[in-house]
Design goal:
The structure holds two protein chains of two kinds. By secondary structure, chain A is α+β, with helices and mostly antiparallel strands. Chain A has one domain. Chain A has a four-stranded mixed β-sheet with strand order 3-2-1-4, covered by helices on one side. In chain A, a hairpin with a 4-residue loop joins strand 1 and strand 2. Chain A is globular. The two termini of chain A are 26 Å apart. In chain B, helix 2 packs parallel to helix 4, helix 3 packs antiparallel against helix 4 and helix 3 crosses helix 5. Chain B starts with 6 loop residues before the first helix and ends in a 33-residue tail after the last helix. Classes of the chains: A alpha+beta, B mainly alpha. At the A-B interface, helix 1, strand 4 and helix 3 of A face helix 1, helix 3 and helix 4 of B.
Chain lengths: 92, 267
């Protein structure tokens, strides 16, 4: 599974990580919905840390499409709120 | 295809796909794809240059404000030594406004610095991918049948396209930030144009419109504090040599109550 952190690198992760990544992403989304700033930073850092520690950086000369693209690491809660709830996205 | 399927990654992926759709059809000829990529790389470079320009503009304003702070501080001291407390207060009010603007410019300059660094890194990555694409296309041309070449080049072009779209998003983000900063820079320019940081000794009698506006802008307690501090540093307006005892941590004033070092007295 190839995961891109927007504005940084692409990482190749073992498929087993998908579940854990999914959980962390859910935690991030929940924190954004409820506007919990500290939970958001914590969950988002944990998500990025997992990608960076478990993943192998895809070299600049390798050309690959990502399965997952994550927002930039310096994403603010405010920006995240606009990303996930704005532009006609209906919360589930 | 593996994926998280969560809302966050879906949204970002959708955004990138949207940018990709807007790009040229990857099934174009190999050389045309490559040529397009090189063109886009030029746009990235231009975008970085815009960020650098915005940063330089803010830095120039910083330098000007820095000078104004020093000048107004000196004028406040001079006014106070000659017993013109009102003029000293005006100078300090203006200095206070200049310092506030300086602080926010400072934050913005470092933010732009960061953006510039990130974009430069992204540009290098994109350049490497495009170079890799160039090599790949020659191999594909030489080794594969037309139909298979089409599939392979389509994959490669999508991969490069994603990188390009990602740089595009980063660029958009930088532009948004720069827009906000431009508003700030314009505000400083307006203050400058209104003569806010001009020589206060050139002011006529009575307060003008600028002064009334500045009184609202500047934080009065800070100005009061600084005026009091400056008074104690300079000694009493009559030029008496004693130093008031409550001037904690202040530099001892010269015995003649004359020139104190400019640029001191941080608010």
């Amino acid at each position: 599974m190839i995961v891109r952190i927007s504005g940084e690198d692409q990482y190749e992760l073992p498929d087993e990580d998908a579940e854990r990544l999914g959980e962390l992403e859910a935690a991030v989304t929940a924190a954004v919905e409820e506007g919990r700033e500290s939970d958001f930073s914590e969950a988002y850092s944990a998500l990025l840390d997992l990608v960076r520690s478990d993943g192998r950086v895809v070299g600049d000369e390798e050309i690959a499409s990502s399965d997952v693209i994550l927002p930039p690491s310096d994403l603010t809660l405010e920006e995240a709120g606009m990303e996930f709830t704005g532009e006609g996205l209906i919360p589930d | 295809m593996a994926g998280l399927g969560g809302r966050m990654s879906t949204v970002v992926k959708a955004k990138v796909s949207k940018l990709l759709d807007r790009a040229e059809d990857p099934a174009e000829t190999l050389d045309y794809s490559y040529q397009k990529q090189v063109e886009q790389l030029q746009n990235v470079k231009k975008g970085i240059a815009d960020v650098v320009t915005a940063k330089k503009r803010l830095q120039m304003q910083e330098a000007t404000l820095q000078q104004s702070v020093v000048k107004l501080d000196t004028q406040a001291r001079q006014a106070l030594s000659s017993g013109q407390e009102d003029l000293a207060r005006t100078a300090l009010e203006r200095k206070n406004v200049a310092q506030t603007e300086l602080q926010s410019l400072d934050t913005q300059v470092s933010e732009l610095e960061e953006q510039q660094q990130k974009l430069t890194d992204s540009e290098q990555k994109l350049r490497a991918k495009i170079e890799s694409f160039r090599t790949k296309k020659e191999v594909i041309k030489a080794q594969y049948s037309a139909a298979e070449a089409q599939v392979r080049i389509s994959e490669a072009a999508t991969g490069v396209g994603e990188q390009m779209a990602d740089v595009g998003l980063a660029m958009q983000r930088a532009v948004d930030k720069t827009e906000n900063m431009r508003a700030r820079a314009d505000a400083v320019s307006e203050l400058e144009a209104a003569g806010t940081f001009d020589d206060v000794t050139a002011l006529g009698s009575g307060e003008d419109d600028i002064d009334r506006q500045l009184k609202q802008l500047s934080s009065q307690p800070a100005v009061d504090d600084e005026l009091a501090k400056m008074k104690s540093e300079l000694g009493t307006p009559a030029g008496a040599p004693q130093l008031s005892p409550q001037s904690e941590g202040a530099e001892p004033a010269p015995a003649d109550g004359g020139q104190a070092p400019a640029g001191g007295g941080q608010a």
